[in-house]
Amino acid sequence: MLIDIHAHTTIYPRDVRPLSEKGIGTPDELVEIYDYAGIDMGVIMPAAQPEPRACVQSNEDILQCAALYPDRLIPFCGIDPRLGYNSPDTDFSYVINHYRDKGCRGIGEITANLWFDDPRCWGLFRHAESCGLPLTFHVAAREGGCYGFIDELGLPRLEKTLQEFPDLVFLAHSQPFWSHISADVNQDNWGGYPDGPVVEGGRIPELLQRYPNWMGDLSAGSGYNAVSRDPDFGYAFLSEFQDRLLFGTDCYKREQKNDLLIQLKTFLEEGLTAGRISQEVFDKVTYKNAQRVLGL
User: Fold this and answer.
1) Is residue 253 domain-resident?
2) pLDDT tens digits for 94-139?
3) Which of 46, 47, 43 is nearest to 248 (CA)?
């Protein structure tokens, strides 16, 4: 069984979009490529923040997508930290509970370009923690011209946030995040896809060892690159943190079926066949951890 922890779809195509966004496919298309790749279920998340898009997506859209394939698609709700009164005192629990009652199993993907420790972000985290839903976020390397919660090299603000909300399950994602798997990450490459051997002592392993309240979303090129750039390290990393890592794709259209959809899946299958990871590790990363986090 495979559960994709990170995907996107829409019933209502948004014709107004930035040049970098080539269009999001329908639920029919997503399930079609899932069938092609042998993926059983997937978490679908709305593009609910204005960063980096010209037209946002509603939670109702995502709920309608999930209703078409209730055994295949798992809805998350997108909640902007600026929602309501753009205040750290906004009652996000009211909104979170509303969508949880409608079937949402988590919150995200949050892409607001605000500092991690902005009081408005912490207001959202406080309510998410109280409501007991996991939260998926994108990390940004700078303010402006980017999307996601903003941090500095070394992820100090993320660490402060993990300390502040020990009972909130964070699902971490993006290039600026996963580049920290290696100790030699630097100001020039932390927003991209560093290659070559991983240097021991990276912040990601350190944070995994220190804080039990977050898990690694291995979706997209960033998650795949983190574990595959140095296969010896990557397979050992998967084994060491087998309870904390989640298979994902970040797919949203048919054109990705022969690359983003299957890259991580292939890497995991090759590791299993070669005996570089065990069946237990494979099962935890591909579906058992997701079942636990999502309460399936």
Assistant:
1) yes
2) 999 999 999 999 999 999 999 999 999 999 999 999 999 999 999 9
3) 43
SS (H, E, C) 14-73: CCCCCCCCCCCCCHHHHHHHHHHHCCCEEEECCCCCCCCCCCCCCHHHHHHHHHHCCCCE
The reply to whether 55 falls in a domain is: no
We report the CATH number of the domain holding residue 286 as 3.20.20.140
- Domain annotation covers residue 245: yes
**Residues of the domain holding 288:** 84-294
Q: What phi and psi, each to the nearest 5 degrees, are found at residue 104?
A: -70, 135
Count up the domains in the chain and report the number: 1
CA–CA gap between residue 226 and residue 150 (Å, rounded): 20
Angle CA 195–199–200, to nearest 5:
145
77 within a domain of the structure (yes/no): no
